[in-house]
């Protein structure tokens, strides 16, 4: 039985090794080369993981009473320092194996005009020799608190500009992207981290690591502070390819925290793990 026929039997949560063999060993499915669309989908999963992770770390730091009082604490394997005078968080990693199985190194900072949770505050995220699983990350992420000062809903508008992920430095292989999105959560839930739910909507666009121009729409990505991966939601994307031009990424709705995602390419579903190693191609 051919690999493409096995993939259509409905066993979506199969082993990554089988998926990798199918997607890269068998280059064609119904005479369509899957490598371009797989490259774009993998790269979107990487950049959305970065966007979510940075936002959640700043949110965690802003709600950490010990950090705000003592000016130092550890959050998800990062040593976090709070400079009250400069209104800045510094997240410092020393090749730490974090909760999402990503090895992080270097630092990134969050500098805000007032408290991150204060309506009207602008926060600028900067990266300094920062990498995830050996992939260097650059760019400027600005997050504006547009919440109503009298409401319980926290709303942030984020703009990631000039983003670059170097997947393979030796081969000049990088993702370049920009994004605009909103994050929403309830202020009252910050006292109970297990109850915090984050809703993200927006758009992203850029060039994949194999040179394909893409654009995507985030259809309510949902995450929690306790789960290191995106919990549910869809990304619909298009890119410049003469064959398959559209696809979607389904972050599987799960009762438990799971690092699985489904790719929908022309009605055929491929299951992947959410990990930087799985998305390196």
Key attributes of the depicted protein:
14-stranded antiparallel sheet, alpha+beta, two-stranded antiparallel sheet, disordered N terminus
What does this structure look like?
- It is a single chain.
- The chain is built from 4 helices and 16 strands.
- The protein has helices spanning 3-7, 16-25, 35-62, 65-70, and strands spanning 28-29, 32-33, 72-75, 78-83, 88-97, 103-112, 122-132, 135-145, 153-168, 173-186, 197-207, 213-224, 232-239, 246-251, 260-265, 268-273.
- The strands form 2 sheets. It has a 14-stranded antiparallel sheet with strand order 3-4-5-6-7-8-9-10-11-12-13-14-15-16. The chain has a two-stranded antiparallel ribbon with strand order 1-2.
- The longest helix is centred in the N-terminal third of the chain and has 28 residues, at 35-62.
Q: What is the topological layout?
A:
Elements: H1 3-7, H2 16-25, E1 28-29, E2 32-33, H3 35-62, H4 65-70, E3 72-75, E4 78-83, E5 88-97, E6 103-112, E7 122-132, E8 135-145, E9 153-168, E10 173-186, E11 197-207, E12 213-224, E13 232-239, E14 246-251, E15 260-265, E16 268-273
- Strand residues, percent: over 45%
Low-confidence stretches: 1-29
**Average pLDDT rating:** 85
What order do the strands of the largest sheet run in, or round the barrel if closed? 3-4-5-6-7-8-9-10-11-12-13-14-15-16
Radius of gyration: 19 Å
Name the overall outline: globular
The total of helices stands at 4
Helix coverage percent? 10-25%
**Termini Cα gap:** 26 Å
What is the H-and-E element order?
Answer: HHEEHHEEEEEEEEEEEEEE
Main pleated sheet: 14 strands, antiparallel
Query: How many β strands by DSSP?
Result: 16
Specify the structural class: alpha+beta
């Amino acid at each position: 039985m051919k690999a493409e026929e096995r993939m259509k039997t409905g066993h979506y949560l199969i082993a990554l090794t089988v998926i990798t063999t199918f997607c890269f060993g068998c280059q064609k499915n119904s005479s369509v080369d899957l490598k371009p669309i797989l490259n774009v989908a993998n790269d979107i999963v990487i950049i959305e993981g970065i966007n979510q992770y940075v936002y959640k770390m700043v949110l965690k730091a802003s709600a950490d009473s010990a950090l705000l009082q003592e000016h130092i604490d550890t959050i998800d394997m990062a040593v976090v320092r709070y400079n009250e005078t400069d209104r800045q968080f510094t997240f410092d990693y020393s090749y730490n194996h974090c909760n999402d199985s990503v090895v992080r190194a270097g630092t990134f900072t969050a500098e805000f005009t007032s408290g991150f949770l204060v309506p009207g505050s602008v926060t600028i995220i900067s990266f300094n020799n920062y990498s995830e699983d050996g992939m260097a990350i650059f760019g400027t992420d600005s997050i504006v608190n547009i919440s109503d000062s009298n409401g319980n809903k926290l709303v942030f508008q984020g703009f990631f500009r000039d983003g670059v992920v170097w997947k393979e430095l030796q081969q000049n292989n990088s993702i370049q992207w920009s994004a605009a999105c909103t994050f929403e959560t309830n202020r009252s839930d910050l006292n109970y981290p297990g109850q915090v739910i984050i809703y993200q909507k927006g758009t992203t666009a850029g060039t994949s690591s194999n040179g394909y121009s893409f654009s995507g729409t985030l259809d309510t990505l949902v995450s929690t502070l306790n789960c290191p991966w995106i919990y549910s939601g869809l990304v619909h994307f298009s890119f410049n390819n003469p064959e398959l031009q559209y696809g979607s990424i389904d972050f599987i709705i799960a009762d438990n925290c799971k690092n699985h995602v489904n790719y929908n390419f022309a009605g055929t579903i491929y299951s992947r793990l959410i990990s930087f190693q799985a998305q390196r191609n």
